[in-house]
Amino acid sequence: MSETVDRRITRTKRAIRAALVSLIEEKGFDALSVKDITARANINRGTFYLHYKDKFDLLDQTLEEVARDIENILLEITALSGIDVVKGKLPLSIVEKLFAYFKANAPVMQALLATKGNHALQAQIKKTMWHHVFEKNRATFIKKENLLVPPEYLISYIAAAHFGVVQEWLDGGCRETPAEMARILTYITFRGPLFAAGISSPNF
Q1: Closest residue by Cα to residue 70 from 126, 114, 19
Q2: SS3 (DSSP) at 174
Q3: What is the pLDDT of residues 131-152, one digit of tens each?
Q4: Based on the domain organization, do 37 and 122 belong to the same domain?
Q5: What is the per-residue pLDDT for 201?
Q6: Quick one: 46 and 123 in the same domain?
Q7: Which of 26, 130, 173, 189 is most buried, most CB within 10 Å of its CB?
Q8: What sign for the dihedral angle of Cα 188, 189, 191, 192?
Q9: What is the residue range of 13's domain?
Q10: How many domains are there within the chain?
Q11: How far apart are CA 56 and CA 89, in angstroms?
Q12: CA–CA gap between residue 71 and residue 67 (Å, rounded)
C-alpha cells in the first residue's frame, strides 16, 4: 500500500471519528446512525463500510485505539525500579504525559466516557494491569506475596479511582494543566485519599 493511500485512509478515519464524537455530543450514541456519520464526515456509505461494519464497530475500534495508547504510556511506569517507587520518585513526566494525551484527545475521551466507554476502558486497564503486573511481572516493585489486600480489589480501586479523577478533570474543562494534574494524582496515589483529606493518622 502506497504512502499516499495510507495518508488518505488516515484522513478518512480521522474524519469519521470526528463525526462520531461531534454526533455523540449532539444527540447521543443511541440516536445517531451511519447515515448521520457519513453526512457529517462528508463521505459516502461505501467508504464507511470499507473500514467499519457499523457504528458499534466504529465505537469499539475507537475504544481499542484509545486503550492501546493508554496502555503504552502505563507500560513506562511498570519499567520503573523498585527503589524509585519506594522513595516516591515516580517520574511526574510519565503521569504528565498521560494527562497530556487525555487533554489532546479530550473530545474523544468525553464522547467515549458518555457511552459504554467508561466501563470498557476501566475493564481494559484492569486487564492490562493484571497481565503486566502479575502475569508478566513487569512491575518488579510490586510483589503479589507482599500485598496487604487481594490483588483484584487493589487493581479495581486503582483503575476506578484514577479514571474518576480523569473524568472529573475532563468534565471541568481541563482547568489544571497536565503537569498540575500529574502532581495531584501522584500525591493522592502515594499518600492516599485520607491523607489528602487532611487526616494524617488514620487509626486502622
Answers
A1: 126
A2: coil
A3: 666 665 655 666 777 888 888 8
A4: no
A5: 56
A6: no
A7: 189
A8: positive
A9: 1-52
A10: 2
A11: 41
A12: 6
- 51 contacts 13 by C-beta, under 8 angstroms: yes
Amino acid, res. 26: E
Q: What is the pLDDT of residues 101-131, one digit of tens each?
A: 999 999 999 998 888 766 777 787 788 777 6
The CATH number linked to 4 is: 1.10.10.60
The total number of residues written for the chain in this structure: 204
Task: Kindly state whether residues 28 and 85 are assigned to the same domain.
Answer: no
Sole residue written with cell 492516599: 192
Q: Angle at Cα 127 formed by Cα 64 and Cα 89, nearest 5°?
A: 100
Which residues of the chain register pLDDT less than 70? 1-3, 5, 77-91, 117-118, 131-142, 200-204
The rounded distance, in Å, linking the Cα atoms of 105 and 149 is: 34
Both 30 and 46 in one domain: the answer is: yes
Q: Collect all residues with Cβ–Cβ distance below 8 Å to 78 and sequence separation of at least 6.
A: 132, 133, 138, 139
- Same domain? For 67 and 121 the reply is yes
Cα–Cα distance between 120 and 20 in angstroms, integer?
17
How far apart are alpha carbons 89 and 27 in whole angstroms?
Answer: 44
